[in-house]
From TrEMBL:
GO terms for molecular function: exoribonuclease II activity. It is found in: Cytoplasm. It comes from Thermus composti. 3'-5' exoribonuclease that releases 5'-nucleoside monophosphates and is involved in maturation of structured RNAs. It catalyses: Exonucleolytic cleavage in the 3'- to 5'-direction to yield nucleoside 5'-phosphates. SMART domains: RNB, S1. This is Ribonuclease R. Residues 687-711 have a biased composition (Basic and acidic residues). The gene is rnr. Its EC number is 3.1.13.1. Residues 597-674 form the S1 motif domain.
Length: 738
């Protein structure tokens, strides 16, 4: 009965007297009071006078400022929490806060009542000793120092980097977990980032044993029951340094169209549901590509061995065979368990050179006609997709390479080759999603919901100030039209950043909610099962459907477990991206340390009341503080810093800067506007030496690209998943409510 009463209050959304409850539900007074009082004790209802009502509470992660106040981050509008009312919450904890009546300024405020979920179970920091106690000084700004239990600390010196498990309570304390190293060496920072985000670096012994037991040869019985694609010109296109090949492609010219094959490694054949391999892959969720180090989702025997679609070797696949008309309409789709033998391993560099009019290497020249067809076909597919409203962000991407502890930053410049693969993967992902939806099968979908109304309204206002109009109704086509209008103009990066920051995060879900950014009704991830767990799950569903082994019991179990899998996969994806960004920023700060005082021409990527963020041509970003700029003030309406005599600094502007300081531990780089040195008197006839702009873009000299270690890509655009805004230390303080 309690559940019925609570649902009634939620449905009506208003207070009710005891007499109303008695009349509506036909309860006795004593019985009704017992139910209502129980709900009050649980905090699900409140009572004021003779009225019962739902408490005005909100739930969300909390941001805390060093001055003691905070904000509960909400989808619509953040809730201000005054000093003294944040409870025992730490930054980013999920909290429940009571909304209080507006203060003198007319704005609501809140009080944190409880912490629902802690953001961190472990903390990375530096060991110190004070008054006979061991203390952890956290790396993360804003976290309190932790007194440590003595166990495990014997022999460790002051300044050691360690990991501690946090025990929360009135006086939180830490328990030693692991020693990471000394100081700020790159190896120590890498271990610190892995520990901070709870990533899994080593595989358990039983997982490695299971992987090693997998035979390299494919059983003849399995080959016999699969469709044989080994007679086709199937090939792969990947980065120069790639080792795990998830996908292969082929194309055939038909009398009135094309047949395209997208062949994806059949990881589900080797990784059985519920096995140690599967459980470890679930816990990892995704492969993590850190600068200088990779944490794969699957052991190397699978990721670089039996599952990788290497040329000249038989490999099992789940294949999508699509027949397209001349107008690119899908005429027929077949899904098959297959076996392929890749005829070549091409790189993006080779394909891009071919697209620009250069030939292929001699050993791959036989694929010239196939590539020509694919480049033409996928370019038209892309144009058609953009016309349908898919959002296209053309932010530059930079490869981060670490060689012997040295950072190299290399721009990614293979747009046509990468677009070729991207379009075919998007096609396969969409068609698999449609197949599952049409048959009512369970799935893990990649969803991207449309922007919140308030975020869209703010975007409309901001774009209107720049001369761009958006309709009142949210539309991906309208957003894409604005992006196209801004292309090539000085304000292009401003417009793109504004649109991007208005979008919600893409995530995984067990429900098909569509993908706003891609303008698709049905979409999921199917094409990378070696490195993404949701893709592996989708493979299992598709294989069950093809083999007709999807029993009602299995379907019911998947429907029950998929929501939790989707939530975990989304969380691990966010952690992986955050770890990649953080370690990349560390290496960029290390790079900046080596180039203090040097001059560069950068672009403004952000403006705020405390300064301007500037990105150098190699992707390194730093802050030019307001005091270094001079008499500038921030104008939210103009989205710019306004200076004397009509000067202004806004997103997309070029700014000549010099590196003033760098703090790798805090991942911070300080820039200052470059000023020409004062002229020095010279002897007659002596020529002045011109100050050259330092080259920061390009591969390291005399290095063979094939011998380099794994790469990580920074500034990769996922819809709505942009680098978080830096905290604003000069944010205007709001008055404490009385």
């Amino acid at each position: 009965m309690q559940e019925t009463l609570l649902e009634f209050f939620k449905r009506t959304g208003k207070p009710h007297r005891l007499e109303e409850i008695l009349h509506r539900f036909g309860l006795e007074k004593r019985e009704a009071k017992a139910y209502l009082n129980a709900l009050v004790r649980q905090g699900l209802l409140e009572k004021r006078g003779s009225r019962y009502f739902l408490p005005n509470k909100v739930t969300g992660p909390i941001s805390l400022h060093k001055d003691g106040y905070g904000f509960v981050r909400l989808p619509e509008k953040d809730l201000f929490i005054p000093p003294g009312h944040t409870g025992d919450a730490w930054p980013d904890d999920l909290v429940e806060a009571r909304v209080m009546p507006p203060g003198r300024d007319g704005r609501p405020w809140g009080v944190v009542e409880r912490v629902i979920k802690r953001a961190r179970e472990r903390v990375v920091g530096t060991l110190d000793f004070r008054r006979g106690y061991a203390v952890l000084i956290p790396d993360e700004p804003g976290l309190p120092e932790l007194r440590l239990l003595p166990e495990g600390l014997a022999g460790l010196k002051r300044g050691s980097r360690i990991v501690a498990r946090v025990h929360y309570g009135k006086r939180p304390f830490g328990e030693f977990l692991a020693y990471l190293g000394e100081g700020e060496a790159p190896e120590t920072e890498t271990e610190a980032v892995i520990a901070k985000y709870g990533l899994r670096a080593e595989f358990p012994e039983e997982v490695l044993k299971e992987a090693e037991a997998i035979p390299l040869e494919i059983p003849e019985a399995e080959l016999g029951r699969r469709e044989d694609f080994r007679g086709l010109r199937v090939f792969t296109i990947d980065g120069v340094d790639a080792k795990d090949f998830d996908d292969a492609i082929h194309i055939e010219r038909l009398p009135k169209g094309y047949r395209v094959g997208v062949h994806i490694a059949d990881v589900s054949y080797y990784v059985k549901e519920g096995s140690p391999l599967d459980q470890e892959a679930f816990l990892r969720g995704t492969s993590v590509y850190l600068p200088g180090r990779v944490l794969p989702m699957l052991p190397e025997r699978l990721s670089n061995g039996v599952c990788s679609l290497k040329p000249g070797e038989d490999r099992l696949t789940l294949s999508v065979l699509v027949e397209l008309g001349e107008d690119l309409s899908v005429r027929r789709v077949r899904f098959r368990e297959g076996v392929i033998r890749s005829v070549a391993r091409l790189t993006y560099t080779e394909v891009e050179a071919f697209a620009e009019g250069f030939g292929l290497p001699e050993e791959h020249a036989f694929l010239a006609e196939d590539l020509k067809l694919l480049l033409d076909l996928t370019q038209r597919m892309r144009e058609k997709r953009l016309q349908a409203g898919a959002l296209d962000f053309s932010f530059p991407e930079v490869k981060v390479e670490v060689e012997d502890g040295t950072l190299h930053l290399i721009p990614q410049a293979e747009p046509k080759a990468r677009s070729l693969i991207e379009e075919l993967m998007l096609l396969a992902n969409r068609l698999v999603a449609e197949y599952l939806v049409e048959r009512g099968l369970p799935g893990l979908f990649r969803v991207h919901e449309e922007p919140l109304e308030e975020a869209y309204a703010k975007l409309r206002q901001a774009l209107a100030r720049l001369g761009y109009a958006l309709p009142e109704k949210i539309s991906s086509k309208a957003l894409q039209r604005v992006l196209l209008e801004a292309k090539g103009r000085p304000e292009e990066p401003v417009v793109a950043n504004l649109v991007l920051r208005s979008l919600r995060l893409a995530r995984y879900a067990a429900q098909n909610l569509g993908h706003f950014g891609l303008a698709l009704e049905h979409y999921l991830h199917f094409t990378s099962p070696i490195r993404r767990y949701p893709d592996l799950v989708v493979h299992r569903v598709l294989r069950s459907a093809l083999r007709r082994t999807l029993t009602p019991a299995k379907k019911a179990r998947w429907l029950e477990t998929f929501p939790a899998i989707a939530e975990h996969a989304s969380e691990m994806e966010r952690k992986a991206e955050a770890a990649e960004r953080e370690l990349t920023k560390y290496y960029m700060a290390k790079w900046a340390e080596l180039h203090l005082g040097e001059r560069f021409l950068g672009k403004v990527t952000g403006v705020a009341s405390f300064g301007a963020f500037v990105m150098l041509p190699n992707g390194v970003e730093g802050l030019v503080r307001l005091e270094a700029l001079g008499p500038y003030t921030y104008s939210e309406e103009a989205l710019a810093l306004l200076g004397p005599k009509g000067k202004r600094i806004r997103l997309g502007d070029e700014l000549e800067v010099a590196i003033a300081a760098s703090n790798p531990r805090l991942r911070q780089i300080d820039l200052v506007p470059y000023q020409e040195p004062q002229a020095v008197s010279r002897k007659k006839g002596e020529k002045g030496k011109e100050v050259e702009m330092r080259k920061v873009v390009g591969p390291p000299k005399d290095k063979n690209r094939d011998t380099r270690p794994e790469r990580a890509t920074v500034n990769t655009i996922y819809f709505g998943e942009w680098q978080p805004k830096a905290p604003n230390p000069a944010q205007k303080r709001r008055r404490k409510r009385r």
